[in-house]
């Protein structure tokens, strides 16, 4: 006997996977009138994920599962809760969902974990409520939630301008292999930007635009070329606030990484390697160096927030 296909209204829960990001280039410009910095950045989505399940409930609630749970708020200051409120308001519903966040992205690591959760929640609520919002509408809601949320929706590799939310896809050949050294404690993004402003005051010349060579390297698929072009204007500020990161970067360079960089506002450090064998060797070297709490491998680019169940 065959069973009828479930009706659309039978959907009771949706699970979405959203990726972390690394900035291959992070150029920071002037402070804008809204207080944000003008950015010119190249994001790449990588295969470290948070998984978000959204279910119908009698009230809005957030549950965190996995590493770093104690450091993630479960009230409406959680970006995922704010995403549910924002999309509910857009479609004229009450945000009465239970959001379960399974953390796979380091918390407060400069890898857009909170933004990934917000992007995933938008996609999950849209699927749960079957509101079928256009990607441009989701993008608009994402912009108001945070500078990195639109990229977490899009994924892949993209140039971000404005405050990082105006996105243009970048052509990339092949897959890049990354190793991430996760620090014992996080860094606050506003604090790193604040330190950047203090340092910038002393040295006001900046070129915020990614180099042509970076774009050409991505097009060629040559990891060695890309490694030489990695750049982060926030790195010096992150190192001032957390000087021990210098040892982490040096440990990766000494172990033959093709490129070593602080991820976004830090403190996670990213290392580019040629392939899987080199990634395995670098994980072992960094784990043995005693300069970080844990080490992860990942590949990029990968797609943005997507429904998996
Ligand atoms: O947009 P988001 O909430 O992720 O930004 C967190 C903080 O990072 C902002 O409050 C601001 O201090 C800083 N920021 C900035 N300029 C940007 C992005 C973030 O100054 N373009």
Task: Give an account of the 3D structure.
The protein has 309 residues and is of the alpha+beta class. It has 10 helices and 12 strands. Strands 1, 2, 3, 4, 5, 6, 8 and 12 form an 8-stranded mixed sheet that branches. A 4-stranded antiparallel sheet has the order 9-10-7-11. Helix 1 (79-91) packs parallel to helix 2 and helix 5 (189-202) packs across helix 8 (235-241). The model has no long low-confidence stretch (mean pLDDT 94). Bound molecules: cytidine-5'-monophosphate (C5P).
In a few lines, what is going on in this structure?
The chain is an alpha+beta fold. Helices cover 35% and strands 28% of the residues.
Topology:
Layout: E1 13-31, E2 37-56, E3 61-66, H1 79-91, E4 97-103, H2 113-129, H3 135-145, H4 149-154, E5 157-161, E6 166-169, E7 176-182, H5 189-202, H6 212-220, H7 223-229, E8 231-232, H8 235-241, H9 245-254, E9 259-262, E10 269-273, H10 276-289, E11 294-300, E12 306-307
Parallel strand pairs: 1-8, 3-4
Antiparallel strand pairs: 1-2, 1-12, 2-4, 2-5, 5-6, 7-10, 7-11, 9-10
Helix pairs in contact: 1-2, 1-3, 2-3, 5-8, 6-7
The structure holds cytidine-5'-monophosphate.
Q: How helical, in percent, are the residues?
A: 25-40%
- Number of helical runs? 10
Main β sheet profile: 8 strands, mixed
* Residue windows where pLDDT falls under 50 for at least 5 positions: none
Globally, the shape reads: globular
Strand composition percent: 25-35%
Alpha carbon gyration radius: 20 Å
The total of beta strands comes to 12
Mean pLDDT: 94
Q: What gap, in angstroms, lies between the N and C termini? A: 25 Å
Order of helices and strands: EEEHEHHHEEEHHHEHHEEHEE
- Ligand names: cytidine-5'-monophosphate
Structural class determined from secondary elements: alpha+beta
